[in-house]
Amino acid sequence: QPAISIRNVTKTYAPRGKAPAKTALHGIDLDIPAGSLFALLGPNGAGKSTLINIMAGLVLKSTGSVSVWGTDIDEDPRRARASIGVVPQELNIDPFFTPHALLDLQAGLYGMPKADRKPLELLKALGLADKADSYARTLSGGMRRRLMVAKAMIHRPPILVLDEPTAGVDIDLRKQLWDYVRELNALGTTVLLTTHYLEEAEELCDRIAIITDGRLVAHDSKDALLSRL
Ligand code: ADP
Ligand code: ADP
């Protein structure tokens, strides 16, 4: 059974102000195999965020269906969402929260008992242990990015979805995030990330789907795909 199954998903954004209606996704069919480290690769405006946000329940699709670990996101959105940790592109963290408090709050939202939460362990794995009790407003962009990853993983979901995790991130932090993602994947987490860097897909991922203008134009194992380029 695939971790995520996307069937004929379309999305048309309603017109807003002078902007006309915009079809961002045209009939996407895609399976994300369980255990894969999967890149959704495409240029800016291709529809990557839209697709991820639909899976995460942040954007409503126009037509089609999405299942997460066999659960249809329309039939049981809470259950589907509990299987996914999402790292959005925006680093929207309340400046007066500490990493420790933020992770506790997030774990509470998922109904995790206190004893199971282990926020400090997670912060340590992401190199944030010494910032556990500092206000988020004092964290660098790179630290905030890592905190968003910790927030996505606090309930130990089997699937991690990251939207452009290393856009605008310096090379050291990029390598650090890649290592963390590889480690999670080796431990069994299915990872789906969007990127517009071919290098990122090539270095990190084992399967690649290419999206442009809201359409999938290729989808294969990395080796098969790169041998055709
Ligand atoms: P990305 O960085 O994923 O390419 P964009 O820069 O296209 O995202 O969009 C940034 C934000 O603006 C997003 O929250 C998106 O939903 C919103 N947005 C993008 N395009 C439009 C549009 N044509 N009309 C209204 N909102 C938009
Ligand atoms: P990507 O993540 O690949 O950069 P997006 O999914 O952000 O692509 O955007 C796909 C298309 O949908 C773009 O043309 C973008 O401007 C448009 N779009 C994104 N969000 C909105 C929105 N909230 N309202 C209207 N158009 C949007």
Automatic annotation (TrEMBL):
Keywords tagged on the record: ATP-binding, Nucleotide-binding, Transport
Transmembrane regions: none
Ranges where the ABC transporter domain occurs: 4-229
GO terms for MF: ATP binding
UniProt name for this protein: ABC transporter ATP-binding protein
Species of provenance: Lacibacterium aquatile
Residue window of the full protein shown: 4 to 232 of 314
